[in-house]
Amino acid sequence: MIPTSPLLTVADGVHLWSPTPSTGWGLANCGLIVSPDGAAAWVDTPYDRHMAQDFLDRSRSLLPAGGRIGRVIVTHANGDHLWGADVLPDPEIVATREALGHIAYEPEPRQLHAMVRGSDPATPLGWYLQRHFQRFDWSATQVVEPSLTFVGELDLRIGQVPVELFGLPPAHTTGDLVAYLPQQKVAFTGDVIFASAPQDPGDHAVHWAGPLSNVIAACERVLATGAQVIIPGHGPVLAPEGVRGHIGYLEHVRDRAHQLHTAGVPALEAARTLIAENTFPSLGLPERLVITVGSEYRYLNGAGEPPAIVATMADVAQVAWELDEGRTP
Ligand SMILES: [Zn+2]
Fold first, then answer.
1. Is residue 128 part of a domain?
2. 120 lies in which domain range?
């Protein structure tokens, strides 16, 4: 079944497509900004063409006559925020210059499509890929590369709606940005925030670049804008208190990772230790701590570029395989 979403109006001219289910890999929040003069933009796209078509059909129903979605602001270059752009006719894709460079680290969509379907479910990686990614269809996906890139900050207007973009130091990925709408006090944060709420438990955050101090600084920068409606990359819409709660999560993971690093515990064992401690039992996908703790260790060790995503996912899958004794399909 294709995850879909009604459009939820979060402020005047600002709408949210937030797929159900909201937890699991690849189900990101997407925004629609509509100016009264008909100019419109997306903030991020769904992961595949089927979900993106749902978002597009619903978006068009809210446009005034002659309106057009001419731009996509991409918070970062992970496929679950970018790969749906090819359902739009000739969009301008806006991203940081680092995000454009990050695309080379991601697998090609059709390569990933074939890898998921061709993988052996008797192996941890094949089991994990099929369990979490087989619902997506990238058989015809073309990556639309950013055509307007910037370094630092960029002030945009979507018709009559001002949008402030600020690029961030490496955090969730290299090349993250936050989009802030000062008139509506709405911030789209991308994946520097993975939200959870008591009624909507959410998943563990995953950070490919780090260090976590940069992710925490990004959250604090979002709060400093004065935003009252904070739309995370994944999970429910937050008020400022929710962002402060998420900072507490990030500080805990950072501090435990540093303690275990100081004690000489290898990165993968440190991730297993945090998972066993189960400090946040309501959060799903605890195996993502393998990635986040690994990023923090690379920072502490002064190492450079992150390892390839597929190699990292093999470790994630191994840990998930160990956690899931019953191997639910
Ligand atoms: Zn994401």
1. yes
2. 7-240
